[in-house]
């Protein structure tokens, strides 16, 4: 029995082992990813991001509980911490989750960090999500901290992205400062039991109203893939990110949040956005892998000495960079 068959049969140890291999980009994982790929594309991926301390982990815990208890869904959680040197195990915060979800075979929590991921954190997160998807998890929650490029890349993986805010973190809305508001499909004001909820909500509302009404569907490689406003309006109403209050210490607002996520999922399906996003995502992945492969081949075929020599010629203005590329690639990759 291959490890993948074991995973399909619910072998958690086999799953855990494969996740480690995938995260480390181990050679065995490549074959497994090929084998499981036809079984992917079914899970709903939910990205959860926001400033440190807004209650993301607590919220993810509540989401997982709700999906288990009220929706009978299998839930996987990927906690991504790009700053953490630890991976493949439990990090702080997971202990909280463990208490409520321990022993439930319908839940799997995985923490990962940058260590060992050659293709970048976004690529290894995508692969880990793919393993969960193939293993039959209905919901895959990807939690990231902060607002770096890696968070934005990871948000792109998700079908529905939640941006979590909390009152009392100062006057500024953290996400606006960090520029992650535009990736939000749903805005969550967590810690709604705290004073200042109204102010935070009001600030978010006015930000949304200021934002251009035609929300970007996706864009990459300079190709404009925006859905023209008139087109969207004529067939499907635009998705306006709703603002949802939650209290993650007791689960308040979580059923409503899950309803909003479900509404967004049907919006994605009906508007064709899900297919568009999927296509853009897979195309970007394909292009990235081609680039990696070509650079690798280039390095293998062209000696360092030759490369240095051409570089020197460029420095001496004997060759332009454009001519140099032609010269180095001459006869290759036709
Ligand atoms: N009052 C109140 N406290 C909350 C709520 N949600 C989370 N907290 C508390 O806020 C603190 C931070 O919660 P976490 O869930 O660890 O927040 P986080 O966003 O995951 O934090 P980082 O992973 O460090 O970015 C904890 O002490 C939680 O108990 C809430 O709804 N109300
Ligand atoms: Mg956390």
CATH architecture name:
3-Layer(aba) Sandwich
CATH topology: Rossmann fold
Number of strands: 9
* Distance linking N and C termini: 42 Å
How would you name the CATH homologous superfamily?
A: P-loop containing nucleotide triphosphate hydrolases
Number of domains: 1
> Average pLDDT value?
82
Uncertain spans, ≥5 residues at pLDDT below 50? 85-93, 214-224, 227-234
* Beta-strand residue percentage: 5-15%
So how many helices?
14
Helix content: 40-55%
Give the overall shape, derived from the CA principal axes.
Answer: globular
Radius of gyration: 22 Å
The assembly state of the depicted protein chains is: single chain
CATH class: Alpha Beta
Structural class: alpha/beta
Query: How does the major sheet shape up?
Result: 7 strands, parallel
Order of helices and strands: HHHEHEHEHEHEHEHEEHEHHHH
Bound molecules: guanosine-5'-triphosphate, magnesium ion
Describe this structure in words.
- This protein has 334 residues and is α/β, with parallel strands linked by helices.
- It has one domain: P-loop containing nucleotide triphosphate hydrolases (Rossmann fold, 3-Layer(aba) Sandwich), CATH 3.40.50.
- Helices cover 50% and strands 13% of the residues.
- The protein has 14 helices and nine strands.
- It has helices spanning 3-8, 12-23, 27-36, 56-69, 94-101, 121-134, 149-157, 174-178, 197-210, 229-235, 254-271, 273-301, 304-315, 321-329, and strands spanning 44-50, 75-80, 107-112, 139-144, 160-165, 186-189, 219-220, 223-224, 243-245.
- The protein has a seven-stranded parallel β-sheet, with helices on both faces.
- Strand 5 (160-165), helix 8 (174-178) and strand 6 (186-189) form a beta-alpha-beta unit.
- Helix 2 packs across helix 3, helix 4 packs parallel to helix 5 (94-101) and helix 6 packs parallel to helix 7.
- The radius of gyration is 22 Å and the shape is globular.
- The two termini are 42 Å apart.
- The structure holds guanosine-5'-triphosphate and magnesium ion.
- Magnesium ion is lined by residues 56-57, 93.
- Magnesium ion (MG) is lined by residues 56-57, 93.
């Amino acid at each position: 029995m291959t490890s993948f068959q074991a995973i399909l049969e619910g072998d958690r140890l086999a799953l855990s082992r494969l996740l480690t291999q995938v995260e480390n980009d181990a050679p065995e994982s490549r074959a497994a990813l090929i084998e499981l790929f036809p079984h992917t594309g079914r899970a709903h991926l939910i990205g959860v991001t926001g400033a440190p301390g807004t209650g993301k982990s607590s919220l993810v815990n509540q989401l997982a509980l709700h999906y288990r208890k009220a929706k009978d869904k299998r839930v996987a959680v990927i906690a991504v911490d790009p700053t953490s040197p630890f991976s493949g195990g439990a990090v702080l915060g997971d202990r909280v989750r463990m208490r409520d979800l321990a022993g439930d075979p319908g839940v799997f929590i995985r923490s990962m960090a940058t260590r060992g991921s050659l293709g970048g954190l976004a690529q290894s997160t995508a692969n880990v999500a793919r393993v969960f998807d193939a293993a039959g998890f209905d919901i895959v929650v990807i939690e990231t901290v902060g607002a770096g490029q890696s968070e934005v890349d990871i948000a792109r993986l998700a079908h529905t992205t939640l941006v979590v805010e909390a009152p009392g973190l100062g006057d500024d809305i953290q996400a606006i400062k960090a520029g992650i508001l535009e990736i939000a499909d749903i805005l969550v004001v967590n810690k709604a039991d705290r004073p200042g909820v109204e102010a935070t909500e009001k600030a978010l509302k006015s930000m949304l109203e200021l934002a251009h009404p035609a929300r970007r569907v996706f864009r990459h490689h300079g190709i404009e893939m925006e859905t023209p406003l008139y087109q969207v309006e004529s067939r499907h109403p635009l998705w306006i990110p709703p603002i949802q209050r939650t209290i993650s210490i007791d689960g308040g607002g979580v059923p409503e949040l899950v309803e909003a996520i479900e509404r967004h999922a049907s919006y994605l399906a009906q508007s064709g956005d899900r297919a568009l996003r999927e296509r853009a995502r897979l195309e970007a992945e394909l292009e990235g892998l081609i680039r990696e492969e070509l650079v690798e081949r280039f390095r293998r075929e062209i000696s360092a000495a030759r490369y240095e020599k051409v570089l020197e010629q460029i420095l001496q203005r004997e060759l332009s960079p454009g001519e140099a590329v032609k010269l180095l690639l001459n006869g290759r990759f036709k």
